[in-house]
Each structure stands twice: as structure tokens, then as C-alpha cells.
């Protein structure tokens, strides 16, 4: 059983590399199989399609993001700085897969992930400003949280603590908190 899991992880890692280098739509399952030295049917044993493979790459990211938001929503009160720091940490953890996704907007749309990201931003806005946020507050939240996501990808070589401090400070300023 461990062998199958290891093969699956190798497939995922190889797919990430090829997708990042040449794009999801331009990467065939045959190329992934060839790179790994396995047959295409062996790859199909683990993943029924390219979409299934992409979904397997992004599911941990989605589960982690959903878990973070659900934990924050379940609490009686959340301090905005804690929300900002936690959201930064989430994006920094998943920055490579986020970069892959953002370069493949068509794939994002096909998998319904754009709606997920937009709903997360709406939920974050409610957590910071409440259910009756003004348009200005909503715009501040989009700038803060969307910008935070961009910073984790824009500055990949910056030490994480330095990037975290700068990004959290900028997001707090954007939100006015």
C-alpha cells in the first residue's frame, strides 16, 4: 500500500513540475508517465484524467483554506490581525500551487475554483467588517487579501518572516485596522 501512495506522490510532484513549466493544458498524461518511467495505464490507475490530477493537487490547498476560514468563523470574535496573519501563513504555505493555478485561469474556471476564491474573500470581509460591510470596506478587503496572496508569489526569495511582517503591515493599512 505504501508503494501505491509513493507512486501517487511521485505522479503529483512530476505533474506539478511539468504543469509549472509548460502549463496544464499543454501537458499530456503520456508526458507525465514518460517522465516517471511508468505506463499511461499505470498513471490512469491513480488518476482518471488530467482534471482529476489537477484536482488532487489543489484539494489540499482548498481543504486547508476552508478549514482556516471555518475555524475563524466558529469563534465568537476574531482579531483582524490574527485573521490577516493566518491568511498570510496559508498563502505562503501553498504559494507554489497558487502560482500554478493563477497561470491556468481557464483550468481554475473549469474546476469551479474562482467561485471558491471569491467566496473566501466575501467570508473574510464579513469576519473583519461584519455582514453589512460598505462598498469601501469590501474594496479594502479585496485589496488587502488579494494583495496578500500576490505578495506571497511576487517575492518568493524574501525571507518568510520579513515578508510576513511587511505584508501584514500593508494589509492592516489597507483594511484600516
UniProtKB/TrEMBL annotation:
Coiled coil: none annotated. Residues 5-65 form the HTH tetR-type domain. InterPro entries: Homeodomain-like_sf, HTH-type_TetR-like_transc_reg, HTH_TetR. Keywords: DNA-binding, Transcription, Transcription regulation. Gene3D superfamilies: Tetracycline Repressor, domain 2 (1.10.357.10). It holds the Pfam family TetR_N. The keyword Transcription applies. Residues 28-47 bind DNA. It comes from the Bacteria. PANTHER family: HTH-TYPE TRANSCRIPTIONAL REGULATOR BETI, HTH-TYPE TRANSCRIPTIONAL REGULATOR RUTR. This is Helix-turn-helix domain-containing protein. It comes from Lentzea kristufekii.
Amino acid at each position: 500500500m505504501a508503494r501505491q501512495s509513493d507512486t501517487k506522490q511521485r505522479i503529483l510532484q512530476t505533474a506539478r513540475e511539468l504543469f509549472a513549466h509548460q502549463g496544464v493544458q499543454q501537458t499530456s498524461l503520456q508526458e507525465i508517465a514518460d517522465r516517471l518511467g511508468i505506463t499511461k495505464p499505470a498513471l490512469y490507475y491513480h488518476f482518471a484524467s488530467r482534471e482529476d490530477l489537477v484536482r488532487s493537487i489543489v484539494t489540499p490547498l482548498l481543504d486547508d483554506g476552508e478549514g482556516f476560514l471555518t475555524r475563524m468563523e466558529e469563534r465568537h470574535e476574531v482579531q483582524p490581525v490574527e485573521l490577516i496573519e493566518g491568511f498570510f501563513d496559508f498563502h505562503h504555505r501553498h504559494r507554489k500551487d497558487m502560482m500554478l493555478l493563477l497561470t491556468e485561469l481557464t483550468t481554475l474556471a473549469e474546476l469551479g475554483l474562482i467561485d471558491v476564491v471569491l467566496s473566501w474573500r466575501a467570508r473574510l470581509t464579513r469576519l473583519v467588517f461584519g455582514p453589512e460591510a460598505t462598498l469601501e470596506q469590501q474594496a479594502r478587503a479585496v485589496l488587502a487579501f488579494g494583495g496578500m496572496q500576490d505578495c506571497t508569489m511576487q517575492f518568493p526569495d524574501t525571507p518568510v518572516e520579513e515578508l510576513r511582517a511587511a505584508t501584514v503591515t500593508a494589509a492592516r493599512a489597507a483594511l484600516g485596522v
